[in-house]
Specification:
Length: 63
Amino acid sequence: MDVRTGDRLVMKKKHPCGADTFLVLRIGADFKIRCEGCGHEIMNTRVKVEKNIKKILREESEN
């Protein structure tokens, strides 16, 4: 999957706060994502995060 830092991920499962969108802070073997609803930061493995992605929201910036 082509996930980049700064992307917003819409996940299949919601966070306990009710939000289903997360901001990608760091990528590698693990992903660090921040809940858009409550601001909680989560470190999880690449496999788990990629399996639960429903949609990737990316803001294309053209120079």
